[in-house]
Amino acid sequence: MYARSNRPQVGENISQVERHYNMRNYKMMWVLMVLAAFLLVLQYHMSGLWVAGGSNVVGNAFGVLDISNDDIIRSAVEKLHLENVISTNIDYKLMADLVLQLGRELVALGCSEMAALSCAGPPPSPLLPPLYIITPTYRRPEQIPELTRMAQTLMHVKNVHWLVIEDAKNQTRMVTELLERTGISFDHLVAPMPDIYKTRKGPKPRGVSNRNRGLQWLRANATKGVFYFADDDNTYDIRLFEEIRTTKRVAMWPVGLCTKTGLSSPVVIDGKFSGFYDGWVAGRKFPVDMAGFAVSVNFFLQRPNAQMPYRPGFEEDGFLKSLAPFTPSEIELKADNCTKVGILITVLIFLTS
């Protein structure tokens, strides 16, 4: 028995001829799709690139390259030599659909790495001392917006670890989810204010339990670097964090305030520390704002009794005095010898004249 020729015979009608060629093209398209899939997946594994589906961007470990889907389609078509197999319109549509489908699959494999590159900020450097940012927070309508704003700043800071500590018995799920999305290295802790202070009349020592919990974490986990108490309702110039990274003991700088005095700052005369300027001195040895100083981890660890007191209005003063032996004359003056001002508190810290 002879094999039948693939060519339609003279006696076949028009509908049979159309079905014959349609089936042939259909099978060919599926073969080409498999070949193209193999080609693109092979190209993906060899180059270390992934396609961000529908975004016309290809990323790798060294950055983002602007490559359009059209370029990928044309390259694939040329490599498969499709020009003599099916029409231009068909092969273009076929490859476009294929790239779109593969893009979705490849994104599933690579998007987590892409996200880490895009939102985690600069990678840690072993040459940079780590920065530990201690942020007390509590549940309120503006908590997530304010933490989001702060996170957007810290995402640009190198080698930073964020200690976010809630005044609560349990972690707030939305806070945890926010921290996980940022890509910032963090610990989410809880430290409720002791009941004895909650029921007391008058001002409350807010944030003290949170900050002391952060200090406890540092004693257990840190050996070097610098830490800074940064409230979530403040706004910070990113340059501040590079200023404080070189702190050897205790560094200070001017902080702008939304008050009549408008400023809390060390006073510097002829390049040397001379005293303090603050709207509320109240006999404090260190009349400074919480946002106005940073401390070396090593310096802190050498003082096992250092902690913040539960005394409203005297938290900063009490903590700095607990770092004894340490005197105001030993303060490291930042922000160009305290000639540049931080504006404002709520706290907005600008390192601008």
From TrEMBL:
Keyword Hydrolase part of the UniProt annotation: no
Pfam families hit by this protein: Glyco_transf_43
Catalytic activity line of the entry: 3-O-(beta-D-galactosyl-(1->3)-beta-D-galactosyl-(1->4)-beta-D-xylosyl)-L-seryl-[protein] + UDP-alpha-D-glucuronate = 3-O-(beta-D-GlcA-(1->3)-beta-D-Gal-(1->3)-beta-D-Gal-(1->4)-beta-D-Xyl)-L-seryl-[protein] + UDP + H(+)
Chief location: Golgi
Pathway entry: Protein modification; protein glycosylation
Group of enzyme by EC: transferase
Location in the cell: Golgi apparatus membrane; Membrane
Keywords of the record: Glycoprotein, Golgi apparatus, Manganese, Membrane, Metal-binding, Signal-anchor, Transferase, Transmembrane, Transmembrane helix
Membrane topology field: Single-pass type II membrane protein
Cofactor: Mn(2+)
InterPro entries per UniProt: Glyco_trans_43, Nucleotide-diphossugar_trans
E.C. number(s) listed in UniProt: 2.4.1.135
Family according to the record: Belongs to the glycosyltransferase 43 family.
Name of the protein described by the UniProt record: Galactosylgalactosylxylosylprotein 3-beta-glucuronosyltransferase
Originating organism: Timema podura (Walking stick)
